């Protein structure tokens, strides 16, 4: 603001202007430079304090004291008189004690109605609200300063705004260097803030509500302060980590020993029952210590404030050593259970291949981390009950805390039954019911022991109490590791294989040479589709080839040969003849020529299959004969003429067969169903001059119209039919699908005449 000049003064005074910071009269030409230098002299805070306003806020005092001559200054926050040399240090300290100062000012303001003018926005503020107003006003000083100086001329407005912005920048830099801790509320350097908070959280057991009370330790019994330095106190390993001075602790232990009561943390405030470990940490007389050790009943485990688990002292002898070495827990990426960093890598490598359910892993994890010791069956049952009431995944801490509420008594009654072998009472979930006629019931431990005993004796695995053989589904119920289960399954397959080798009944064996799966056939002469439960190979029960629908094993070679001829040469020849008689076939012929390369890729796979078929048919015609009962192809490798279908005459070399006995010389010679032909032609293709055949009632699975012309049925699919117009593209797509699934190419059966006419023939 400009100072008013009285009339009659020198004209040179009209060129001078009073500085808004130091209140000196400055030449107008030097005003901007003066204000800029004045704002950097650290006097910006002092200059506003020296401007004293009257109570009616109308007249500015004309007296001005130079900062160099003053001995003390009034703090703008607490209003105390501070020595000039200590003023800056006091301001930095006072700014962090602002909330307390505010309360003091409020108390003072109740006794006075004085007002102060804000040094930033120049508004008159009641003295009891001054500090709070300055704190809020400083954050928006830029916008406030610009609005408060609308009445100034342009030069004064720009100069004052720049000076205040520089001051606010310096103030904000000072304020952002430190930050109050959210736990202990102490001002901490920003560079050390994160590490300080983590350390503060660890010291207070992640309980922010009790952090202020734990700063000054007090005895739970006498409520007197405890000096950490002298060590004359004990921290009890209860969940709240109560502290007792040694005098009160020894006195209470003597009282427990005198009354013959089990020692606890506090008779009325904490029911934590002391363990033998807790008693050993208290300096007591030998007679009192021995008496207390006899009275100890508590099985409650001490609580670690770092990992927040209860520690089983049978596995960790020194609780203090555990607390010192307890690291941060990191969740496993597979089971999401927390493990120390040193154990995480080993656990993750095992957990990656472990197929155990999450609830079972959770049970094993918290078994030794509960407040009181419970059995594995009880913890498993408790987790199952909790999971029914919770829709989200349960973490181990929530289970442990929920179980700790009930103390040492398990909250649920578990339905039990006696094992038929060991006669021990077990929960129903731990009893396995066998699929035998008597439905014997064993606990899983006895079930596993029975399997190991029979394996050691070289016996086939059966029910522990009868001769009912165990199937793969029953073995999979064993609660053991995957590696151990695989050993038992392989053993059972081998023993079953050997048992069938000594019989003459029909069996079915997987044709995969690397698979040992074998099963007994209810009817060895019946043809049906078989899927191996071990390697998932699908095959025909009679010929061991890829299973074929709507055709016999003897017809399959000829159908395969005709399909190969059609894809190789006959499709193009047939479409060319049809296109000459009917222009409607010209489009199909054009598509066939355009997709010539894709057809060649498919024909390459068919050529390989066709060559194998021809070589196989020729070998069987030269070396094999047919079983007189099931018509399977059999071969005599060596020895006499006595034969058994499906195995050697004297046992061993088990294959699929009906088990019938016959003489090799009397068996029927195998005749090749397909023989190589010099010309790869289909002799019964429809001629162009003949009318097109209609297959009434048969729909094409591609165009959904009635099949007209040649009908194509896939013999390896349960139901798949195409007409001759859709066959070219549809069978090519079907071939791509088989290649993607890494399956053998399917064969289509060519049907030239309707089914009614075929039946009449």
Describe, in plain words, how this protein is organized in 3D.
There is one protein chain. The chain is an alpha+beta fold and 761 residues long. Among the domains are: 417-500, 2-Layer Sandwich (Herpes Virus-1), CATH 3.30.40; 590-666, no CATH class. The chain is built from 25 helices and 32 strands. Strands 24-23-27 form a 3-stranded antiparallel beta sheet. Strands 31-30-32 form a 3-stranded antiparallel beta sheet. The radius of gyration is 48 Å and the shape is flat. The model is unreliable at 1-14, 42-70, 98-113, 141-161, 163-176 and 205-215 (pLDDT under 50). It holds the Pfam family IBR. Pathway: Protein modification; protein ubiquitination. It comes from Rotaria sordida. Residues 139-148 have a biased composition (Low complexity).
Strand-helix topology:
Layout: E1 16-18, E2 25-27, H1 31-39, H2 44-49, E3 72-74, E4 81-83, H3 87-96, H4 98-109, E5 115-117, E6 124-126, H5 130-139, H6 141-148, H7 154-175, E7 178-180, E8 187-189, H8 190-203, H9 211-215, E9 233-235, E10 243-245, H10 246-259, E11 264-266, E12 270-273, H11 276-280, H12 286-295, H13 319-325, E13 329-331, E14 338-340, H14 341-351, H15 358-366, H16 376-389, H17 396-404, E15 416-418, E16 425-427, E17 431-433, E18 441-443, H18 444-456, H19 472-475, H20 482-501, E19 507-509, E20 518-520, E21 529-531, E22 538-540, H21 556-581, H22 586-594, H23 596-623, E23 624-626, E24 633-635, E25 642-644, E26 661-663, E27 668-669, E28 694-699, E29 706-708, E30 711-714, E31 721-722, H24 727-740, E32 748-751, H25 755-760
Antiparallel strand pairs: 1-2, 3-4, 5-6, 7-8, 9-10, 11-12, 13-14, 15-16, 17-18, 19-20, 21-22, 23-24, 23-27, 25-26, 28-29, 30-31, 30-32
Helix pairs in contact: 1-7, 6-7, 10-12, 15-16, 21-22, 21-23
Keywords: Coiled coil, Metal-binding, Repeat, Transferase, Ubl conjugation pathway, Zinc, Zinc-finger
Protein name: RING-type domain-containing protein
Coiled coil: 589-616
